[in-house]
């Protein structure tokens, strides 16, 4: 077996597992954050569930460490009260990013299993462990049962040859891989990394690369731990580690050879992490702000890289540089080593540890039209605010902050760029709708949205994440998807959405499913779905089915047509044009959960 199969087999009590097999997996570490945590608690309480093992169950308050938003503050307090009553450990606002805490404090070990309401829980691949982001119902079920069902994914083996170029950072490796594979070529795969260049990666570098597996559509990016990484982990938490490795004769769906010597410093252009370009082609782009942090680049090595450039220099006039270490321990180490002093003297804002702008709850957000260069993992439209975000390495972000435009540390100007002027605008409005029934056959008007990689921020933006009442969610559906901002106002109960690949990419937010239920949308057909989104929809008893574009062409489907869908047989009929075709029907698991009215039914 390969690495992931061995982990899943051990944790499901099986001698071996095969791709496509559905297994019940025991979860070693079960986490809810301050965003999503209140909904997890609500699901547990409303369904009369008990916490299976409080010693393996945690809250991490990393999205809004300051509780600066009233709804976040209320949710955090709600979770704290539940934690007190049920003996659950809280890593509160003084701690940092939950996934990093789990690694550094030994809550999860190589070969272990981890779930969180964080869609980047697969960052655990950096230490050779299995991690998954989940929606609120999924986490509530894991808290109650101690396990979760998983479909064993196919695996890809990436074998790296050649020498890594000196100026190519771990972030550059991630962006180069996004340039190669895009957002969906690794969709649904577990991906393992091998080669001399990989063996030499530090723990911090592996965390950077693993954290962007979600942006590639992968289930997880897995690194077999090196001796250096194992020693690093043991020195952090003191636990003895017995790592898990793939068998020498492990089977992979694909083995892909990659020459890392061809990699170069790159940035991701605003809008999509996979829209990547050689940094030389975007040098001199004027920036308004810069951000160093997130679960991708808030580690000590990242801060040291930035400090080397910022020492003795000043941030360009009018440019805002925000720096957020990933954990409080890293913050303290940066203080002890004099890095915080360097950052402050350069003119940076240094905040307490946490997720920062990615989660919309802390420093790092930008305003309308604002151009930001960021070390984050996502630059979806609206994700980090209303501006435009370029993704880059910490060294590029630091150099750009000093220059006032995108550049590299070896190409700093004698004088920083100066601002001229710019403007701004924005506003939206929507309506509320009602829930729909759940028949096995539905019929409704089609919304044909011919777009791939529609992410969860386009479906249900993160500024609405504190909403827990499903009746309020529908009005915000697609209000961040260009061309469909008025969808919620025009959609009618029983309508059907038909779209492209990787629908629901990105976050683990349950609201991106529930907003359609709120409007009464009867089902969604897509060529493929983001892995977390697919689970959330199935577990919420919301009908989603995969549908190849050839079938859409076969029945000559257009927006506004009346479509009939049979979930059990997979037959779809364009009633308007009297043409029929067949798609993949509900699986047994999906049908059972749908019949029960949801995972917690």
Helix content: 25-40%
CATH class of the largest domain: Alpha Beta
Overall geometry comes to globular
* Category from helices, strands and their pairing: alpha/beta
Largest sheet: 7 strands, mixed
Low-confidence stretches: 424-436
- First-last Cα distance: 35 Å
Q: How many structural domains?
A: 3
The CATH superfamily of the largest domain is known as: Aconitase, domain 3
> Strand order of the main beta sheet, please?
22-21-20-19-23-24-25
* CATH architectural grouping of the largest domain: 2-Layer Sandwich
Find the CATH topology of the largest domain: Aconitase, domain 3
Number of strands: 25
Mean pLDDT: 93
Strand content: 15-25%
CA-based gyration radius: 23 Å
The helix count comes to 20
Structure write-up:
With 601 residues, the protein is α/β, with parallel strands linked by helices. The chain has 3 domains: 260 residues, Aconitase, domain 3, CATH 3.30.499; 146 residues, Aconitase, domain 3, CATH 3.30.499; 156 residues, Aconitase, domain 4 (Alpha-Beta Barrel). Helices cover 29% and strands 18% of the residues. The protein is built from 20 helices and 25 strands. Strands 22-21-20-19-23-24-25 form a 7-stranded mixed β-sheet. Strand 8, helix 6 and strand 9 form a beta-alpha-beta unit. Helix 6 packs parallel to helix 8 and helix 11 packs parallel to helix 14. The longest helix has 17 residues. The two termini are 35 Å apart. About 2% of the residues have low confidence.
């Amino acid at each position: 077996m390969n690495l992931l199969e061995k982990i899943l087999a051990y944790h499901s009590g099986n001698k071996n597992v095969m791709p496509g097999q559905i297994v019940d997996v025991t979860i070693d570490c079960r986490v809810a954050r301050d965003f999503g945590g209140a909904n997890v608690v609500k699901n547990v309480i409303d369904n009369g569930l008990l916490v299976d093992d409080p010693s393996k169950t945690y809250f991490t308050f990393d999205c809004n460490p300051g509780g600066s938003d009233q709804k976040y503050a209320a949710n955090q307090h709600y979770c704290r009260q539940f934690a007190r009553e049920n003996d659950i450990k809280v890593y509160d606002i003084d701690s940092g990013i939950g996934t990093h805490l789990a690694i550094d404090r030994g809550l999860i070990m190589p070969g272990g299993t981890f779930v969180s309401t964080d869609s980047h829980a697969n960052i655990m691949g950096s230490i050779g462990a299995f991690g998954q982001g989940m929606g609120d119902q999924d986490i509530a079920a894991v808290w109650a049962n101690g396990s979760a069902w998983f479909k064993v994914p196919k695996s890809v083996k990436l074998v790296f040859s050649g020498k890594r170029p000196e100026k190519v950072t771990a972030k550059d490796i991630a962006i180069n891989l996004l340039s190669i594979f895009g957002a969906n070529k690794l969709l649904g795969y577990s991906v393992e990394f091998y080669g001399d260049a990989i063996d030499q990666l530090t723990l911090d570098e592996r965390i950077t690369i693993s954290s962007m597996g979600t942006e590639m559509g992968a289930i997880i990016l897995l690194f077999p731990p090196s001796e250096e990484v194992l020693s690093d982990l043991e020195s952090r938490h003191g636990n003895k580690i017995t790592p898990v490795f793939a068998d020498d004769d492990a089977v992979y769906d694909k083995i892909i050879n990659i020459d890392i010597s061809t990699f170069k410093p790159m940035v991701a252009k605003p809008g999509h992490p996979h829209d990547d370009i050689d940094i030389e082609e975007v040098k001199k782009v004027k920036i308004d702000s810069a951000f160093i942090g997130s679960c991708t680049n808030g580690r000590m090595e990242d801060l040291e890289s930035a400090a080397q450039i910022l020492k003795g220099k000043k941030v360009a006039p009018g440019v805002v540089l925000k720096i957020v270490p990933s954990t409080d321990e890293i913050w303290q180490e940066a203080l002890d080593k004099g890095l915080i002093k360097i950052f402050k003297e350069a003119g940076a804002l240094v905040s307490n540890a946490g997720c920062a702008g990615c989660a919309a709850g802390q420093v790092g957000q930008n305003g309308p039209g604002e151009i930001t260069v960021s070390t984050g993992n996502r630059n979806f439209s609206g994700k980090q605010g209303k501006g435009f975000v370029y993704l880059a390495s910490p060294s590029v972000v630091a150099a750009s902050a000093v220059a006032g435009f995108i550049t590299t540390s070896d190409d700093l100007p004698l004088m920083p760029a100066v601002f001229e002027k710019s403007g701004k605008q924005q506003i939206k409005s929507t309506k509320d709708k009602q829930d729909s029934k759940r028949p096995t056959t539905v019929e409704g008007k089609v919304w044909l949205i011919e777009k791939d990689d529609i992410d969860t921020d386009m479906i249900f933006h993160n500024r609405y994440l504190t909403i827990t009442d499903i009746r309020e969610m529908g009005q915000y559906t697609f209000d961040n998807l260009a061309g469909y901002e008025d969808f919620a106002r025009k959609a009618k109960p029983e309508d059907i959405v038909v779209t492209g690949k990787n629908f629901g990419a990105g976050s683990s937010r349950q609201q991106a499913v529930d907003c359609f239920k709120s409007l009464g949308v009867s089902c969604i057909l897509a060529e493929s779905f983001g892995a977390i989104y697919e689970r959330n929809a199935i577990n919420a008893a919301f009908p989603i089915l995969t549908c190849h574009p050839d079938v859409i062409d076969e029945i000559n489907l257009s927006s506004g047509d009346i479509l009939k869908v049979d979930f059990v047989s997979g037959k779809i009929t364009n009633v308007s044009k009297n043409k029929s075709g067949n798609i993949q029907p509900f699986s047994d698991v999906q049908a059972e959960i749908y019949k029960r009215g949801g995972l917690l039914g």
